[in-house]
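Re: Re: ligand-bound prediction request (bumping)

Still looking for help on this. To restate: I need the protein modeled with 3-thiaglutaryl-CoA bound, output as structure tokens. Inputs repeated here so nobody has to scroll up.
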Amino acid sequence: MDKATKAPESTADPGPLRDPLELLDTSRLLSGEERDIQASVRGFLADRVRPHLGRWFEEAHFPRDLVPELGKLGLLGMHLEGYGCAGTNATSYGLACLELEAADSALRSFVSVQGSLSMYSIRRYGSEEQRRLWLPRLASGTAIGCFGLTEPDFGSDPANMRTRAVRVGSDWILNGSKQWITNGSIADVATVWAATEEGIRGFLVPRGTPGFTATDIGHKQSLRASITSALSFDDVRLPASAQLPEARGLGAPLSCLNEARFGILFGAVGAARDCLQTALSYADARVQFGRPISSFQLTQRKLADMAVALNTSMLLALHLGRLKDAGRIRPEQVSVGKLNNVRQAIAIARECRTILGANGISLDYSPLRHANNLESVLTYEGTEEIHTLVVGQALTGQSAYR
Ligand code: TGC
Ligand code: FAD
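Reply:
Sorry for the wait, this slipped through. Here it is.
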């Protein structure tokens, strides 16, 4: 055997498992700074947010007053450089998403849309003037952004969008509609994707522009603490300076999705962790047939399978974080992460609900709230089926979408 590849013999006793959720000791793979960032987000949420989550979900309330606080914590556009952004590495951004989603997917959604979709689209494709105008305000949470790609008739297939921008002199006239837009009605600026004679282009549409309206979508059974809106554009006149000058073709909005999908693949681990933590402590305290239900083999099998799925999802997220920080991540690798980690998280959330019995349907416990939220997470940013086809295309070289 090659000496260089021989593992050193270990004599140290690893000691007892300190945290059952940390079965694989993944926190050892983080730097001190990454651990500090994760702990500070977790601490903020514990004091300021956790006690209210069930009520916000029940009342379909988005806690808008938290937005400047998220800005102060540096969580908005966290991994972007300059213009008031924190400029952390991507793994730290992922860990912040994990903690936010351990509270509620609505909070991670807000941060994803603000940082990875709205701010990233401006940072990567905007003019210097657009960056200076919007990014510092979006980073501090004094302004809110949204990202309009999906339309009522085109979700998985944005290439066929109907929203259209036509040049009239040096201006643009925008007509069409967008559907299911997170933050839509509270956004100060919307990044809107439209078909033009030259292909798909992006535009920044400020709130209050004549002809632009946003209406909230109600009756949601998922992501209830998040605002989701329909946007309508009726002969909206925009100056040439509203166009994102560097965005050309569908690849531009899809590149923004890679950023948000990256946050989701970490976030899903957080939702799953919170469910498993809840189920573990419930199973320990709940006695049936004279024994804690955690002592039954069938319960232990559920807990063990979920712990394996949670820890392997975390390893996958960290591996993808390291690839992204090295500048080597590929879109299909992000798809692997989103596909696996959201699939595992929703399965864990549903299984944890069973361990809680009837109490599992109460908003006093988090698993069913997470499971309901994860229904949206499974669908947005590319459905499970679309990410399967992205991976299929990477494996076979053949596109099976159409
Ligand atoms: P296709 O012909 O494959 O590609 C068109 C051009 O785009 C390039 N491309 C990408 N570039 C960067 N990143 C990616 N992930 C990319 N995927 C493709 C591609 O190379 C090509 O470039 P070029 O230069 O040759 O023109 O496009 P297609 O029409 O066949 O569609 C491919 C497909 C199905 C994968 C894509 O349309 C897709 O991802 N569909 C899903 C749509 C989606 O995810 N929508 C999300 C909307 S935003 C949202 O949900 C926010 S929720 C946020 C929250 O609240 O957290
Ligand atoms: P469809 O595309 O109609 O798909 C319906 C079903 O058909 C799915 O199961 C899908 O996988 C399947 N399907 C479609 N095509 C194929 C195929 N080729 N092969 C196999 N199966 C296929 N969008 C934004 O632009 N901005 C936002 O901020 C935003 N926020 C959202 C917030 C919430 C809460 C939700 C629920 C959605 C949000 N979306 C947003 C929209 C989201 O991105 C879309 O819902 C998603 O892309 C799927 O589109 P669709 O709902 O039209 O489903």
